[in-house]
């Protein structure tokens, strides 16, 4: 089934040119005069082997009256509501305009997946506009040229990530949370699934390796749709010899890749063997949310000390998933089962977190005050600006001077501080360091995070206000770990006075001694 792609943006940014390229023929009139397209136009198109239903739209304008422009805006909003993915086109040569900012905010509120494309990016003239695209908070801008076909391969890769939307009939609210249950053989995975379902849905027994395929089971917990995927137990590679077991291992790894939350089930009497550590590391590298499950808890004698030792061991051996929830339970008796799903959904919410750009940059300033970036070769590295490019997992880009020389140790410090400050325990976090100018640095009127003229009262949203916007994370009243000073303090960015020339008194000219 083709993917519905709405091409949207303000007038004269090249939407129809891009529409014609994807359609493979000149179906839409293209002219330098803005406002040529007025109605929605549909066409079949393709990008490589990806089939598309293209929707060309009128240029978006910020009007709400009964004028022709207002009716054109209504057509654009209708296109967004019926598409699978919105391709938001901006002009890389002009950069981000107030109209782009207004439309970007509407797209965020729509809840539709958005790909931000900076068109007319051929040559060096569009580099600045591409960088400015980060301030819209819609992820990493894609540099393209609808006229010359540049960036189409990258657009194809991004659209492939949304291909599944063309086949989904469920509403977003009814879409099941995909949970993969992994672990070593005979750790109690299938017994756990049977306990959750309330029936012997999966074959269990004392023999290791009974489950060979990944079994998907739809389930409902307190009105929330859940899709459980039980997997074959993973052994060490040296022990994976039979062809059937190799296929089972590949199937399990694939289940991790397509899951949203992964339950790593361990035998509580022998937790954290080498294979468990490798599985946890695999889940983190795949960017999935992780919950530790200590099964067979009824067989543990000193439960308090065992749980304490487990947490300390996890903190030391797996710092990359620091704070991941630990649920101790017995699938045989049912004890502790009621604690598992709240932990799963809490982790799923953290994994889906979106942090406001302003909150990120306020936090960044405080994090640098607490622990300034190091100097390399006598010159200090200067982080300038930060934005979130995607969720699931939360992924961020940090623009900095001398980005290639940023020590890995400082990047880890930022990740740990970000994790603790925004309450994201156990969630994989990604920070990419890039060189580039701060898109807000060209004028104070664009300083949306704590700038003197931004109209903000400093600080972050309160925790109560944050609760009204699920999926969004604000820094709240917390401080940077180990830092001083409340985050409610206003961060100003005063303009530095121009440097004054240093005037030195002119010394009297030297006289040459007379020749004898």
Write up what this structure looks like.
The structure is a single chain. The strands form five sheets. The protein has a six-stranded mixed sheet with strand order 2-3-1-4-5-6, with helices on both faces. The model is unreliable at about 25-40, about 200-215, about 235-250, about 440-470, about 475-480 and about 480-505 (pLDDT under 50). The chain is about 30% helix and about 20% strand. It contains 13 helices and 19 strands. By secondary structure, the chain is α/β, with parallel strands linked by helices. It has three domains: about 5-165, P-loop containing nucleotide triphosphate hydrolases (Rossmann fold), CATH 3.40.50; about 170-350, P-loop containing nucleotide triphosphate hydrolases (Rossmann fold), CATH 3.40.50; about 355-475, K homology (KH) domain (GMP Synthetase, Chain A, domain 3), CATH 3.30.300.
Query: Strand count, sense and closure of the main sheet?
Result: 6 strands, mixed
Count helical runs. Answer: 13
Biggest sheet strand line-up: 2-3-1-4-5-6
Helix content: 25-40%
> Low-confidence parts lasting 5 or more residues at pLDDT below 50?
27-39, 201-213, 237-248, 440-472, 476-480, 482-505
Distance between the termini: 103 Å
Overall mean pLDDT: 75
Q: Looking at the chains present, what oligomeric state does this protein adopt?
A: single chain
SSE map:
Blueprint: E1 3-8, H1 15-23, E2 41-47, E3 50-56, H2 68-82, E4 85-91, H3 98-110, E5 114-119, H4 127-132, E6 142-143, H5 152-160, E7 177-183, H6 189-197, E8 215-221, E9 224-230, H7 243-258, E10 261-267, H8 274-285, E11 289-295, H9 303-317, E12 326-328, H10 340-351, E13 354-355, H11 357-370, E14 375-376, E15 379-380, E16 383-390, E17 395-400, H12 408-421, E18 430-434, H13 463-467, E19 472-473
Parallel strand pairs: 1-3, 1-4, 4-5, 5-6, 7-9, 7-10, 10-11, 11-12, 13-19, 17-18
Antiparallel strand pairs: 2-3, 8-9, 14-15, 16-17
């Amino acid at each position: 089934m083709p993917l519905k792609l709405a091409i949207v943006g303000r007038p004269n940014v090249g939407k129809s040119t891009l529409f014609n390229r994807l359609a493979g023929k000149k179906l839409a009139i293209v002219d330098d005069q803005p406002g040529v397209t007025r109605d929605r136009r549909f066409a079949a198109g393709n990008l490589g082997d990806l089939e598309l239903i293209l929707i060309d739209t009128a240029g978006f304008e910020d009007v709400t009256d009964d004028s022709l422009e207002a009716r054109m805006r209504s057509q654009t909003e209708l296109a967004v509501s019926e598409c699978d993915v919105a391709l938001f086109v901006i002009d890389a040569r002009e950069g981000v305009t107030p109209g782009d900012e207004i439309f970007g905010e509407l797209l965020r509120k729509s809840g539709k997946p958005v790909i931000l494309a900076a068109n007319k990016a051929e040559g060096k003239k569009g580099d600045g506009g591409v960088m400015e695209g980060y301030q819209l908070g819609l992820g990493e801008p894609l540099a393209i040229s609808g006229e010359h076909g540049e960036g189409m391969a990258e657009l194809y890769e991004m659209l492939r990530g949304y291909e599944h939307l063309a086949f989904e009939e469920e509403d977003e609210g009814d879409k099941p949370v995909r949970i993969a249950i992994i672990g070593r053989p005979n750790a109690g995975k299938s017994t756990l699934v049977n306990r959750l379902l309330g029936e012997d849905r999966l074959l269990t027994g004392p023999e290791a390796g009974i489950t060979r395929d990944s079994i998907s089971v739809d389930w409902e917990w307190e009105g929330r749709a859940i899709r459980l995927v039980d997997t074959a137990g993973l052994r060490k590679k040296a022990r994976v010899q039979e062809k059937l077991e190799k296929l089972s291992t590949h199937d399990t790894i694939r289940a991790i890749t397509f899951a949203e939350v992964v339950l790593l089930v361990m035998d509580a009497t022998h937790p954290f063997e080498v294979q468990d550590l490798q599985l946890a590391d695999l889940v983190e590298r795949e960017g999935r949310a992780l919950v530790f499950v200590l099964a067979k808890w009824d067989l543990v004698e000193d439960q308090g000390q065992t749980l304490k030792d487990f947490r300390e061991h996890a903190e030391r051996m797996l710092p990359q998933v620091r704070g991941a929830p630990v649920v101790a339970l017995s699938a045989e008796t049912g004890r502790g089962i009621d604690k598992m799903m709240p932990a799963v959904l809490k982790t799923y919410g953290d994994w889906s977190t979106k942090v406001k750009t302003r909150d990120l940059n306020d936090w960044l300033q405080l994090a640098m005050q607490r622990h300034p970036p190091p100097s390399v070769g006598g010159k200090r590295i200067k982080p300038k600006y930060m934005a979130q490019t995607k969720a699931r997992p939360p992924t961020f880009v940090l623009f900095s001077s001398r980005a290639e020389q940023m020590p890995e140790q400082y990047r880890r410090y930022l990740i740990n501080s970000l994790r603790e400050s925004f309450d994201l325990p156990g969630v994989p976090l990604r920070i990419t360091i890039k060189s580039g100018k701060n898109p807000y640095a060209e004028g104070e009127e664009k300083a949306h995070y704590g700038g003197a003229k931004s109209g903000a009262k400093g600080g972050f949203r309160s925790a109560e206000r944050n609760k009204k916007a699920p999926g969004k994370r604000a820094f709240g009243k917390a401080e940077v770990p180990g830092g001083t000073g409340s985050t409610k303090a206003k961060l100003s960015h005063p303009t530095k006075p121009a440097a004054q020339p240093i005037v030195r008194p002119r010394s009297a000219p030297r006289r040459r001694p007379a020749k004898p």
